[in-house]
Specification:
Length: 337
């Protein structure tokens, strides 16, 4: 077990400040989205970015590819995209002796940062080609396993409005994303800044700050951050409170939810909270870290029932109710700092 000290935390925090500074050279506003995307990448998680066209989803991913100085590939998902277009395929060719042999030709998934642009436009068969890579970091083609290099991330985008010609992501794939982040419209002043900035150049200008080896060291350092048992209990209680059939489920889950989050949500909350704590320069995970990350971790893992959907209640509103109930529960954080 590695023992971290104050110097490690300061170095970690300074490195993250430099990452944020470089990303801001390309992205105006969207501070929370940028902050949470960096948290997920350091923690080793995949991110689903949702927002209307033209607000900078793709630009953000490309900018992060530059800042992290890692091999980057983009896959434009379309209805005619085939699984082999993502994973790669075996190519028949002749060797030096003239014999016919198969050679594996890697697809764009063999990169460190993969932008899955408009992921919900591909068919479920093609979407499923990402499942193994996102969870196991391997790709199986013709019965042969191929390992992906580390670090590896899938940063996917989708448009929440347009439904024609799209295929909703299955629950199994949604659960592979550590965070789902919603990108909203910029303010008037931010739009003005965006227009003025892009009149000079449309290219990203962010510079590399962290390489793959450094990123893996940062991840290993964050994992050593201690977590009090009370916070783990609070976090697991919050996750269980999303499950309508759980003993921890309260009125909110029974009235509003038809499906809750799995243990993977609890893993994501604790892992990401450690990174958030270190970015803030702290040696330990606090309740505020769990509360701040609850929506990104849970909003795509809970399913609202039909009555709640008809009432136009959002997943974030339901999570807010669950957080309030968790704070007031006897086993929650009531009366604690």
């Amino acid at each position: 077990m590695t023992v971290i000290n104050e110097g490690d935390v300061r170095l970690f925090s300074r490195k993250c400040e430099e990452i944020f500074r470089q990303v801001k050279r390309d992205i105006v506003g969207q501070d929370e989205v940028v902050h949470n995307t960096v948290i997920a990448m350091i923690a080793g998680g995949n991110v689903l970015l949702e927002g209307v066209p033209g607000i900078g989803k793709t630009r953000l991913v490309r900018s992060l590819g530059r800042v992290f100085a890692l091999p980057f590939s983009r896959i434009q998902f379309t209805p005619d995209l085939m699984p082999a277009d993502v994973t790669g395929t075996n190519v028949l060719e002749k060797d030096a002796q003239g014999n016919a042999v198969y050679r594996f030709e890697p697809g764009p998934i063999f990169s460190n940062i993969v932008l899955a642009d408009e992921i919900n436009r591909a068919t479920p068969k093609t979407q499923s080609a990402l499942l193994e890579a996102m969870q196991e970091y391997t790709v199986t083609v013709a019965g042969e396993n191929h390992k992906l290099s580390q670090p590896f991330f899938v940063l996917a985008t989708q448009n929440p409005i347009e439904q024609e010609g799209t295929y909703a992501l299955p629950e199994a794939q949604l659960d592979r994303f550590m965070f789902k982040l919603n990108m909203g419209y910029p303010t008037v002043s931010q739009m003005k800044e965006i227009v003025l900035m892009t009149q000079k150049t449309m290219d990203e200008v962010a510079e590399g700050v962290v390489d793959g080896e450094t990123l893996l060291r940062m991840r290993a350092t964050a994992r050593e951050i201690p977590v009090m048992d009370a916070i783990v209990t609070y976090t697991m209680g919050l996750v269980a409170s999303t499950q309508p059939g759980s003993d921890c489920a309260g009125e909110t889950a029974r009235l509003r939810l038809r499906l809750g989050a799995s243990p993977r949500a609890g893993q994501a909350l604790i892992t990401a909270a450690k990174v958030r704590a270190m970015i803030a320069g702290r040696f330990n995970v606090a309740y505020e870290d769990i509360d701040a990350l609850a929506c990104p971790v849970l909003r795509h893992r809970i399913k609202l029932n039909y009555e709640t959907l008809a009432a136009r209640v959002t997943p974030d509103q339901v999570i807010g109710e669950l957080l309030q109930a968790a704070k007031e529960a006897p086993t929650g954080r009531k009366g604690r700092p």
